[in-house]
Design a protein that fits this description.
The chain is mainly α. Helix 1 runs antiparallel to helix 2 and helix 1 runs antiparallel to helix 5. The relative contact order is 0.18. Helix content is about 70%, strand content about 0%.
């Protein structure tokens, strides 16, 4: 069977991809910020992934007359796909450590973030939504539509840009708000570079699925078996302890080795890549608007944190006792989705 020619492959422009990203941001922000205090977060994120991320992306593909299989790329090998899920599980450990550190820093310096509704969803529901459905739709948007658009002029810079956009969207996809963004850059880079190495979004989807499953599958074993403590104990709270640093270093190394396994097992044929195209004028406008929107939401979060800190200090002064804030950590419940 003859291979596809370069001319037969059509990708969206970077400008179109960034406008789509901005629309997804606006839709997700409108949905989650307006209903966050009334509807459980897991269901909100599922609805956002299904109707906003998936719906908007499929509509853009239809309107631009793109071929879905061009955006998806090569079919995955089963072994490499399993390895990609394991790589996502491995990268969850450094993600959790870094997001935990940023979360604590913001809570102690700026102020506490208001608690979210606790989700009572079963593990089966969580795995179905976060292990399959959400990674599929987010994968089509980020690793299919946006990365292929961004990579037409320079594939390396396109992977970096896509990873950063994925991390920015993490403002709405976890309970940790802005605390998750730096750590999500790690997940985004790993997923984006599997697409860079293989020209297939399936392995990036596997990485995000494995990362999503890290919380319900690994948090309690991490505490009970590795730290042998509860979340209030000093050994767990000290993020620079030998146990934490050893865990992060080892798991980061394992994730790197698994990424190299995928790259070597699924080699990329440069001859099958589409030819580069020029970037359309004013492509940066939707990117700038997206940055402004994310910046405004992060600023409002910091304002809310500062206000909560002032309230806590007033209450402490009235009731007596210490004015210091307690150490904060992401609550190890299924509603927390780092």
């Amino acid at each position: 069977m003859p291979e596809k020619s370069q001319a037969s492959v059509q990708f969206p422009s970077l400008r179109a991809a960034l406008w789509l990203y901005l629309l997804v941001l606006i839709g997700t922000a409108a949905l989650t910020l307006s209903l966050a205090t009334n509807i459980e977060p897991l269901f909100l994120r599922f609805v956002a992934a299904l109707f906003i991320v998936g719906g908007f992306t499929l509509a853009a593909i239809f309107l631009q007359r793109l071929k879905l299989h061009d955006l998806v790329g090569r079919a995955p090998g089963p072994i490499s796909l399993i390895v990609s899920v394991l790589a996502g599980v491995a990268i969850w450990f450094p993600f959790y450590w870094l997001s935990f550190m940023v979360y604590r820093f913001l809570e102690n310096t700026v102020g506490p973030f208001p608690p979210r509704l606790v989700t009572e969803s079963s593990q089966v529901t969580y795995i179905l939504q976060y292990g399959i459905i959400i990674p599929l739709f987010q994968g089509l948007l980020f690793w299919g539509f946006i990365q292929h658009a961004a990579g037409q002029s320079n594939r390396f810079r396109g992977a970096i840009l896509t990873a950063l956009l994925f991390a920015g969207y993490g403002l709405f996809s976890t309970d940790l708000a802005s605390s998750a963004i730096p750590a999500l850059v790690l997940v985004g880079l790993m997923a984006a570079f599997t697409v860079y190495f293989t020209d297939s979004i399936w392995y990036a989807i596997g990485i995000t699925a494995g990362y999503n499953l890290g919380l319900p599958l690994l948090l309690n074993p991490l505490l009970n078996s590795y730290f042998l403590v509860t979340v209030s104990d000093d050994q767990y709270q000290n993020l620079f302890s030998v146990r934490w640093l050893l865990l992060v270093i080892v798991m980061s190394f394992i994730a790197f080795i698994l990424l190299q396994f995928i790259r070597l097992r699924v080699p990329l044929d440069p001859a099958q890549l589409p030819s580069t195209s020029r970037t359309l004028r004013l492509w940066w406008i939707p990117l700038l608007l997206s940055v402004v929107l994310l910046g405004a939401i992060v600023t409002s979060e910091m304002t809310l944190r500062s206000r909560n800190k002032q309230v806590a200090q007033v209450n402490t002064a009235v009731n007596g006792g210490s004015t210091s804030l307690p150490l904060a950590q992401p609550t190890p419940s299924i509603s927390q989705t780092p």
